């Protein structure tokens, strides 16, 4: 039954988007029909116009078709719900001069054609009306046709999408239960194509406006509903994880300007997905939660919301100073480690998250976040997490294995303590082996005591490591 239903949905989708190929098709719901209404992008006014028309006729099929076509296409979403461009004084002055010149030309044409016949005058007026209509339609499509020109004018934190208009549109559309399925099916078709574009075609590097797709989808207030958790939201999270670091930083800075309620809504959406996947599956030492792509993708998306929560709160960065690069002492110890195949890791302390470097902030600098850090902890995930395996993935840093220690905000105190326990044990074993090798190579006597080197100028920092 599921296969048959899927086949019918795909068939209906292709009929709406591509048509049957018969130019004389009489099916008004087919794209090949001459009376079929083609809408290549959406604005708040267009949505309200179609919605009012459907409400009067009590038939929401046209609006469902438009939602399915636009919200399943990344190209259509990129040019939808654009901000109205505000002209500068120089642009307004130049436009005014052009209008004056146009009026003078029209007056001259009117004087020259005064002796013409009435039929000719009527034909000229009709042509002028057609020209004005074409100019109006071209100005209506101005944002979409000049998308490439606006790419260079965008600031580091500036977006071209009208977020307030999107929220108003969602508020009206989601109030109608007949339209919910259209958004759901559109997101299922949209996400794999977006993931492919980001992974193989580097679409964001060519057009930064591609970020509008994620901004528009994340404003959907029903993403946490059970219908989305099964397939649509996991696919979308996988696509969002493919965003380059620059795009993630821009999205985080945009979200940091949201209210605490908006941040909490997005946080609860990803937490809901993680909890749903954890409860729906049986994880153990063989079937690790680290191997679940949906949970991993949701955790990475939750990480962006977490940093938006940090950046949007009260952040104190005045005390930060650039770390002084200390010269590596040339000693027999270093030479011996090189001979033994040992490399100095983390020369400047713990590893720094690339997102922190992109944003220029640290989590420790946040004095008061928008929402409490405790809300980001997922208890069901902590219950099934195999910390010994997770710590191994964290230390090895393999690309095909994800470690939740890279998202420490999602772990509770017990899980973090267990991770520190494994870290201390491994470091003790490592120091013990190095001591034995020193005794064999240099002829030193075995010393069971741990030797610590504390710098006088950094005694507090070294003591806390």
Automatic annotation (TrEMBL):
Entry's Gene Ontology molecular function annotations: ubiquitin protein ligase activity
Coiled-coil residue spans: 78-105
Catalysed reactions, semicolon-separated: S-ubiquitinyl-[E2 ubiquitin-conjugating enzyme]-L-cysteine + [acceptor protein]-L-lysine = [E2 ubiquitin-conjugating enzyme]-L-cysteine + N(6)-ubiquitinyl-[acceptor protein]-L-lysine
Stretches with biased composition (Polar residues): 140-152
Keywords, comma-separated and alphabetical: Coiled coil, Transferase
Domain Ubiquitin-protein ligase E3A N-terminal zinc-binding: 5-40
Enzyme Commission designation: 2.3.2.26
One Pfam family named in its UniProt record: AZUL
Stretch list, region Disordered: 134-154
One of the protein's GO biological processes: protein polyubiquitination
Enzyme class: transferase
Matching PANTHER family: UBIQUITIN-PROTEIN LIGASE E3A, UBIQUITIN-PROTEIN LIGASE E3C
Protein name listed in UniProt: HECT-type E3 ubiquitin transferase
